[in-house]
Design brief:
The chain has 14 helices and 5 strands. The protein is α+β, with helices and mostly antiparallel strands.
Length: 370
């Protein structure tokens, strides 16, 4: 492992002692995890700094360059040896998470979770055939709307980095949403539209996935590159293929509906305009974006948007107004012919009715019929 130390406001007489500390901690916390990698594939950069005004205050920053990723740890404190140890311990935790992802440990956990969901579904018969049949009749007509809503949310959250690009998938979220819906079917307000009820549950499931992703995310900065050959050698051919080709990658461009224009030139221009609008939507705060898309694209009244988002109509109205003002100004700066004023998001086309995908339809039929 290559290493380099930069000192700021540190007496040269202390350099040797600090480098000995760094070498000892590197060996203890890092080298045992990364010893199988080629030395030139791993580089550690350390910055050790003493505060100019508070001479008993130190700052340590560690950057570990490994294939495809940079891991970062920072600590401040009055005892240099203590903060060095804490920084290396944090870096070691990140290395362990990095290697787990490299070995696709997360993929195995996801497969186990999918298997658990299938077992839960297989046990739905315990609720009784009439209950399952009634539930199927209740939600089947709304599966297409639910699938479209989930796909859209995951597309934005993955594009923004709030969720990994390969997990959860649309199917994962729909699985869990339907399971929650089945368990809570007796508590549903019968006057509430089923589509709205399913969106509420899906939003809870998605937000929980975002919270989990944030809690487990190391401080990573993705870089172009390839994983070490030694690491790939430990994977099967199928796992190597999965590493480079995630099961499902969503893109904002996928959200753009097919334009209906008279000429191919007009179709291309409209598709580009819509793609720009959808990309700008990604720059909105999450609550603003969700409110605007539910209200404008899904056509929900403000009161129903508030119900889905767990807010109140007055707050949602404020979100819509702020989102609309920002989007109009930004899109006009981009050169799009957007009116300066209008109803919130009236320049965004409403979503057409979408039939459930054949994959989801068949899976749902198989589950509910046992």
């Amino acid at each position: 492992m290559k290493g380099h130390v930069t000192y700021k406001n540190i007496s040269p007489a202390s350099h040797e002692r600090i480098e000995q500390l760094i070498d000892r901690m590197t060996e203890k916390h890092l080298e045992r995890h990364l010893s199988y990698m080629q030395p030139d594939m791993v580089q550690l950069f350390a910055i050790v700094e003493k505060n100019r005004h508070h001479h008993d205050l130190y700052r340590v920053a560690l950057r570990l360059h490994v294939p495809r990723t940079v891991l970062v740890a920072r600590e401040d404190g009055h005892d240099l040896e203590v903060i060095l140890r804490e920084a290396f311990e944090e870096l070691e935790r990140q290395v362990e998470r990095y290697l787990a992802r490299l070995r696709r440990d997360d993929a195995w956990r996801r497969k186990e979770r999918r298997a658990e969901l299938r077992r839960l579904k297989a046990g739905l018969e315990e609720a009784g055939a009439p209950a399952v049949s009634s539930f199927a009749d209740l939600v089947q007509a709304e599966l297409g709307t639910l699938e479209q809503f989930v796909r859209r949310e995951l597309t934005y959250l993955q594009a923004l980095g709030d969720l990994p690009s390969d997990y959860p998938t649309v199917e994962d979220i729909i699985d869990e949403t339907l399971l929650h819906a089945l368990r809570r079917r007796d508590q549903r307000d019968t006057e509430q539209p089923v589509a709205l009820w399913l969106r509420q549950i899906a939003m809870e499931v998605i937000d929980e996935a975002v919270d989990t992703a944030r809690a487990n995310r190391p401080e990573l900065l993705s870089l172009e590159g390839r994983p070490p050959r030694d690491a790939l050698a430990e994977l099967s051919e199928t796992e190597r293929l999965d590493y480079w080709q995630p099961d499902e990658v969503l893109h904002i461009e996928d959200l753009v509906p097919g334009p209906e224009s008279e000429t191919p030139e007009e179709e291309i221009a409209r598709a580009q305009e819509l793609a720009q609008i959808y990309r700008r939507l990604a720059g909105l705060p999450r609550a603003w974006r969700r409110a605007l898309m539910l209200h404008r694209i899904d056509g929900l009244p403000v009161a129903q948007v508030a119900a889905v988002l767990g807010s109140d109509p007055a707050t949602v109205q404020g979100w819509l107004a702020q989102a609309d003002a920002w989007l109009r100004a930004t899109l006009r700066q981009d050169g799009l012919d957007i009116p300066e004023q209008g109803e919130p998001g009236d320049f965004i086309p409403a979503a057409p009715a979408v039939a459930v995908s054949e994959t989801l339809r068949l899976a749902f039929a198989e589950i509910t019929t046992g």
